[in-house]
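Human: My hope is that you can spare some time for a protein that puzzles me. I am handing you a single protein, as its sequence and its fold in token form. Could you go through the record with me and say what the backbone is doing? Take your time, and here it is.
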Amino acid sequence: MVFLAMLGACANPTVSEIETLSPAEVVGLARSATDQVHVVSLWATWCVPCLDEIEVLRTIEPKDVRVDIVNIDTSDAFERRARPWLEQRDWKGTGLYRLTARDPISELSKAWSQWSGRLPYTVFLRPQGDVCEEYSHALTRADVTEAIERCRQ
């Protein structure tokens, strides 16, 4: 399953407020223009570097940055691992959404052609909606801060 914070979602959603999205809706989210730098990160609970990066992303000040996270665990793994992992951290501030797909990696790869299927995958978009930077490895706080600054220019 996949989690995402979505444009127009409530400002401080909680784990219990997770909505579902199709692969096409995930792609649409990443292509949406906002008045903020927009960060979209794909992750899974079985990906240890992903968990480290998600901890970094949750500390980003929402002042002029929109952070959307996408978890690609299967439906069963979401309930067994992802939801408890997020609840343990009292997740708030970044919206949470689930991808509805039988085979999340395959279906999302088809819908989002620039994604190779590697995790974590993080895209930084300028406020106009164009891709500024993208990464297929875990990012540190410094990496994220620097990428956000470059996207503001």
The chain has one domain: 15-152. The first strand starts at residue 19 and ends at 21. The longest helix spans residues 75-88.
